Amino acid sequence: MRSSMLPMTTSSSQRQDNDSMNSRDAARHTASAKRYKYLRRLLHFKQMDFEFAMWQMLYLFTSPQRVYRNFHYRKQTKDQWARDDPAFLVLLSIWLCVSTVGFGLVLDMGIVETFKLLLWVVFIDCIGVGLLLSTLMWIITNKYLMKHDSKDYDVEWGYAFDVHLNAFYPLLVILHFLQLFFINHVVVINSDGFLAYFVGDTLWLIAIGYYIYITFLGYSALPFLKNTVILLYPFALLGLLYILSISLGWNFTRGLCRFYTYRVN
Questions:
Q1: Residues 161-179 pLDDT 10s
Q2: Could you report the per-residue pLDDT of 27-37, keeping only the tens digit for each?
Q3: Contacts (Cβ under 8 Å, ≥6 apart) of 189
Q4: Contact criterion met (CB below 8 Å) for 180 and 99
Q5: What local confidence, expressed as pLDDT, does residue 217 receive?
Q6: How far is CA 39 from the centre of its chain?
Q7: Within its chain, how far is the Cα of 254 from the centroid?
Q8: CA dist., res. 185 & res. 166, Å (int)
Q9: To 10 degrees, what angle do helices 2-41 and 157-176 make?
Q10: What is the pTM of this model?
Q11: Which long-range contacts (CB under 8 A, 24 or more apart) does 56-65 make?
């Protein structure tokens, strides 16, 4: 009786293995198709919903939870967590270019130096660092933060990149746009006064705090992840660093300006 059951068990396990392989192949095919569709829409501006992307940018400052509720809706209707519309990325790129040109003007850079700075900021600071951080978070969440009963789910790399873009946008606006109005007036680059490094370091505290919090919201929105509260732990280090910077007179804004100047020279 036992021997007659063995072939059935073996064939059943083989069918399960084949089904799992087919599902993985289908997932890879679907992911490739989604990437192709996303990249293709980059060339068709009329298909992008810029109004909705601007709405998301506004709520990333005022109520970022509402942005991630929309990601839930996308999963229910389109079976994917990541954005399928590159409008947000396009608007973010425009913000990045305009603010970098503003930095060039504030730092009295020429056209060539400003163009060099733009290339550095776009391809290294935004794309390069963004790909690195997104891949790192994608690996960490899939390897260490998955629930035991969530074997059929995983964090999409595209979603990890979207979380980074969401968190990067407020940081960009604060450090690359709002801060421009304080440089050379309040945050004097060559000044060691208290007001200079207090205002500059406080802007850095708010910007990085936004990045940490919005990153936490992005991954805590996924129902198959656990212990996402650990993504808030960097707040302790951030607070300690802020206290040290104020106590010791560190001026991060002055350091950023000098770093940008060094890059292009």
A1: 999 999 999 999 999 999 9
A2: 444 656 666 66
A3: 183, 253, 254, 257, 258
A4: yes
A5: 96
A6: 18
A7: 25
A8: 30
A9: 30
A10: 0.83
A11: 56/88, 56/166, 57/88, 57/91, 57/169, 60/166, 60/169, 60/170, 60/214, 61/170, 61/173, 61/210, 64/166, 64/213, 64/214, 64/217, 65/217
